[in-house]
């Protein structure tokens, strides 16, 4: 036996452990094969520079892979493992939490009756330094950062990895989908075009869960105003709005706030001091009505209320703060005074429940044995955010590929990647509206990880099922644009069939 002092902790760059399982989804028992392992990232000379840990679920009673969709799943951060959607959203196994997403003990894993495995195979991918994925130890830190830690570097190497995976698993004929959460939406938006242009791999769909900016700028008055609908949703949840709003259902109330935001608040903030004191007080009063804050503190901040202040202020008089990623969660600070909360109550709650579950699951159920630490969040900083054109990348990929569809999923109580800015992204992604029929938005009554709430877990997975079904072309249907016919027989515009 080799002495411990002489051993070296290193990840196998190329490995697989295969296990057999079953899960009941929508009342039907589904057999599946799980492959947990690592696959190399190759450099330009064909040498391995990293090993990415992945978990691949393949339904084993379906032989026709040409018609079987493949979903490639990424989480965000950057620096976050794929754990979140893996064991709490789309996968066949589900961590033990309560109906609203709070930790329960004993920790554990159970069947996910809402998994999308009935309609698609799924692979969960961990970028370098997340999960069990690592760069080779012969690369210097500067080389690792340049090759892996940036918007465009990330997209480039992951596209190559996907190409290898699809080839190894013989999935080139399969309809393919990318799903990303949070920064993962930046990742998959860029990947849609990179896969298409550099690897000639064409997708059927992209799903953005709690999307980031995607390089689509929201600055000045737009950035200041667009948070108000989220503030209103959160205040409604905590029952601090006036009765005329509180008695309405959430989705009946929010359109009113959205219209005020677009038609009155953005123009008002644009005017600055030229708005005049009286009009400024009027706007502040409406903001107070919709946000649950006082007009006084809104005026003190010149109608521009920072999110961190909102999280501290909304329940300040009750002695609580609210969460950033999911504002249903409340926390307790050392002092009630201050401009922002001491900590994120929702994230600490999630780490409490997810970390034991994923470590137990990989080792005990998937039989993948390693002493390497599973990084829930790994060291990837500094991250190069320059030249982020991922939103336009996605638009270009959709324009080039008539089969490519987009669905956005957002939680109304997400203060980090809020739902209204997610809508704004969609509107700006294709301002002409020529591709709007291939875009859809779904909202849920929870936060950043809307699937942690059991009711939304069922609904959001069903939305993915329907999205996949709707985006699969009919047999013999070509990927092409055809000119529309108008009255008089004159052609105009374009549509996809």
* Main structural class: alpha/beta
Outline the biggest β-sheet: 10 strands, mixed
Computed over alpha carbons, the radius of gyration is: 24 Å
Tell me the number of strands.
Answer: 16
What does the average pLDDT come to?
A: 95
Low-confidence stretches: none
Annotation field: number of helices = 15
Oligomer: single chain
Q: How much helix, percentage-wise, in residues?
A: 25-40%
* Beta-strand content bin: 15-25%
Shape: globular
What can you see in these coordinates?
- With about 500 residues, the chain is of the alpha/beta class.
- Helix content is about 35%, strand content about 20%.
- The protein has helices at about 85-90, 140-150, 150-170, 185-200, 220-225, 230-235, 245, 250-270, 275-290, 295-300, 305-315, 345-365, 390-400, 420-430, 455-470, and strands at about 15-25, 30-40, 50-60, 70-75, 95, 110, 120-125, 135, 175-180, 205-210, 320, 330, 405-410, 440-445, 480-485, 490-495.
- Strands 1, 2, 3, 4, 7, 8, 9, 10, 13 and 14 form a ten-stranded mixed sheet that branches. A two-stranded antiparallel ribbon has the order 5-6.
- The model has no long low-confidence stretch (mean pLDDT about 95).
- It comes from Hymenobacter qilianensis.
